[in-house]
Design goal:
By secondary structure, the chain is mainly alpha-helical. The chain has 10 helices and no strands. Helix content is 74%, strand content 0%.
């Protein structure tokens, strides 16, 4: 699938900045923050529901990024990595204030949820929840998501957990909308197969 164009050019720029920033280039890090601030803020805002809280999350995210960039094996996945950090910080903030429950990648996914992720699994494997039970299905989903390829897991969580549109995901990851759709389809398909396998093992 062809992924060339302005978005991919920007993606290459972000990747280059991430590599330089990871090596200690302060100017590159500041440029990286400027390039990725928008999508990180959107993820935080969707979860927090408050601009003030979202800005706090963004600040915490980039503070973490200063020391954590060197641990990112694929510099091309930097945006997804930053979004994951923001998602978890935002989730912690929401929970601390006793607001609505939000999923975090660090917490078990609850079965029986009405979120898009729960619906996607139910549509692919209608008998999975009955086979596994709520608690087991939640643990199975968490394990299955963790085992997905990075590029598939990032698209799946941005869409099904954070609720970003295809356009926002395409912008966040610097890929085409068609690639978003393809990766999301493959992620759902792989996830359904993993859950079905776990269901058989626990049967």
């Amino acid at each position: 699938m062809n992924e060339t164009g302005p978005a991919q050019s920007e993606g290459a720029e972000v990747e280059a900045l991430a590599r330089k920033a990871a090596a200690g280039d302060r100017d590159a890090f500041e440029a990286l923050v400027e390039k990725t601030h928008g999508v990180v803020f959107r993820v935080a805002l969707r979860i927090c529901g408050s601009r003030a809280d979202a800005e706090d999350v963004v600040q915490e995210t980039f503070i973490r990024a200063i020391s954590g960039l060197a641990t990112v094996k694929d510099a091309g996945a930097t945006k997804g990595w930053l979004c994951a950090i923001a998602r978890n910080y935002a989730t912690d903030k929401v929970r601390a204030r006793g607001r609505r429950h939000i999923w975090s990648l660090d917490a078990p996914i609850e079965a029986g949820s009405t979120t898009l992720l729960g619906e996607a699994i139910a549509s692919e494997e209608p008998g999975a929840e009955e086979q596994l039970g709520n608690q087991q299905l939640g643990a199975a989903l968490s394990e299955a998501i963790a085992e997905l390829k990075d590029k598939h897991r990032v698209v799946l969580t941005l869409r099904e957990i954070d609720g970003l549109s295809y356009e926002e995901i395409a912008s966040a990851l610097d890929i085409s909308i068609g690639t978003v759709e393809s990766r999301l389809h493959r992620a759902r398909e792989a996830l359904a197969k993993k859950v079905k396998k776990l269901a058989r093992e626990l049967d």
